[in-house]
Amino acid sequence: MLIVNLDTHRPLVLLPGRDQRTLATWFRKYPEIQVVSRDRSGVYATAAREGAPQARQVADRWHLLKNIGDEPERMMYRHMPLIRLVVRELSLKKSPEPEISVPVASLRRPERLKQQTRKKRHQHWTEVMALHNKGCSFREISRITGLSRVTVSRWVRSGTFPEMSTRPPKRGLLDPWREWLKEQRESGNYNASRIWREMVAQGGGQAVKPSSGILLPNGVKAGTHRLLLPQDFLQCSG
């Protein structure tokens, strides 16, 4: 523990420990001490009362300013759920991009999940922008919203709501033949070789070759034979 003379701003002694007994013993050696400046530690307060009962205990300017600065932050953490709720409500009321709502029940499950994800993401974005407009730093916004600082920085710098990128489905080799293959299965044509020959005759079989075996309906396996599916056609190397 370092003890400093606040009148001269010079260190007096470096004590070997920070316990109450060590500090009280040192105080007793200097009965002329009139003021003890300390932080909020209860150990220091007790040591000063025991070792220098004649001294007046005060808090120095640095600790006072630090305590004043820490208290609003602690208060915000205590009321963070309410603060987030208020920020979201205000942000949604001032949102410049009203969404066209579609009844969720009328959507398929993938579309419902997609819409719910977008709605939640948009709420986060409006909250981030509202905090940024109030002058909050990226670090503060990240701490309040729970988002990473990288995400907060990217959203703020973009200036507009970042829609999720959607890639078009990759077109498969057998996409043009899907309806025709379905008709073959429904008509009872489950022979892979025969289907392949008919595709060749129509000018499309040269690009693919079938798995061997007789095709069964509904994907039922019989020995080594199985239903011919689009993924059973493999692109030829030659």
UniProtKB/TrEMBL annotation:
Residues 123-185 form the HTH IS21-type domain. This is Transposase. Pfam families: DDE_Tnp_ISL3.
